[in-house]
Design goal:
The protein folds into 2 domains: about 170 residues, Peroxisomal Thiolase, Chain A, domain 1 (3-Layer(aba) Sandwich), CATH 3.40.47; about 150 residues, Peroxisomal Thiolase, Chain A, domain 1 (3-Layer(aba) Sandwich). The chain is about 30% helix and about 25% strand. It is an alpha/beta fold.
Length: about 325
């Protein structure tokens, strides 16, 4: 029996025009380019400045380009999932809004919130739908307006985050390409170290929550770094060992772009040379669930059919994991 896998068959992205550089950021908060660069590897990030436009605006732009690029009509799409921690509204789902904005009328879908691991969790979810044979053309939209939950008075977190969106067409594959295997984890202890306190059912919006700046992202950097640097590398190595993969077998590691030191540590644990670790954090910063797709979009022309890629991420929750993926097209 021929096994069906889920494969990315086209990819398109959107990044806002406005570029917030480290130098400009140093005029907003007490920081400087050297401090940011040495600790994170980030030089600039994209910020969506359009008034009253949110995550769906960027997601719709990416989907429109994806449909054009892949010569696919909106009527052909039968499933659309959006991974984000910055939805337009608590409800309706941002995926629904994106469908409406792009004329996708024959699909259903929903949002997935898994922090910076959102793409991994969403691709694994879509893969189950594809493998079941019920869906032929699905779209994953990874989209984040991280600037909307970033406190630009907090010098420790405001240099980290940027805005972007990437859309991917996911189709069945019977040639052995696409998503081969995954290792995914969650640990609720992360809610103590990386979270957005207010706006949910525990702490509904009040004058007090606004004055206390509790509608912005909070991160305990030391704890998050400790968990991320070990767990992201551990799962990447585990998936290599599960499939007897060596560093020579792997074309590229596509890591979540949170911090250059975490990325470097993961690559070294896997025994990879620097040229096999793809990085664009300097240009875009941490775009949460978008960061792995953003690397795929940025480096699409580097990939050859059959290339073995390892995706690895760590995010709020805590959530983390790794994918063993074979690129499906030239």
């Amino acid at each position: 029996m021929i096994k069906t896998t889920a494969a990315i068959t086209a990819i398109a992205g959107y990044v806002p025009e406005y570029i917030l550089t480290n130098d400009e950021l140093s005029r907003i908060v007490d920081t400087n380019d050297e401090w940011i660069t040495t600790r994170t590897g980030i030089k600039e990030r994209r910020i969506l400045k359009a008034e009253h436009e949110g995550t769906s605006y960027m997601g719709a732009k990416a989907v429109e380009e994806l449909l054009r690029k892949s010569n696919t009509s909106s009527e052909e799409i039968d499933l659309l999932l959006c991974c984000t921690v910055t939805p337009d509204h608590p409800f309706p789902a941002t995926s629904n809004i994106i469908c409406d904005k792009t004329g996708i009328l024959n699909a259903w879908g929903y949002d997935i919130n898994a922090g910076c691991s959102g793409f991994l969790f969403t691709l694994s979810t879509v893969a189950r739908f594809i493998e079941a044979g019920r869906y032929k053309k699905a779209i994953i939209v990874a989209a984040e307006k991280m600037s909307s939950i970033t406190d630009y008075t907090d010098r420790n977190t405001c240099p980290l985050f940027g805005d972007a969106a990437v859309a991917m067409l996911i189709e069945p594959n019977t040639e052995g390409f696409g998503l081969i295997d995954e290792i995914l984890h969650v640990d609720g202890i992360g809610r103590k170290y990386l979270y957005l306190k207010a706006g949910g059912s525990c702490y509904p919006p009040t004058e007090k929550t606004v004055l206390n700046r509790e509608h912005f992202l909070y991160q305990d950097g030391k704890h998050v770094f400790k968990y991320a640097v070990s767990n992201m590398a551990d799962t990447a190595v585990e998936i290599m060992e599960r499939h007897q993969l060596t560093a020579d077998d792997i074309a590229y590691l596509i890591p979540h772009q949170a911090n250059l030191r975490i990325i470097d540590a993961t690559g070294k644990r896997m025994g990879l040379s620097d040229d096999k670790v793809l990085v664009n954090i300097a240009k875009y910063g941490n775009t949460s669930a978008v960061s792995i797709p953003l690397v795929l979009w940025d480096f699409e022309k580097h990939f050859k059919k059959g290339d073995i890629l390892i995706f690895a991420a760590f995010g709020a929750g805590f959530t983390w994991g790794a994918h063993y993926y074979k690129w499906s097209y030239e």
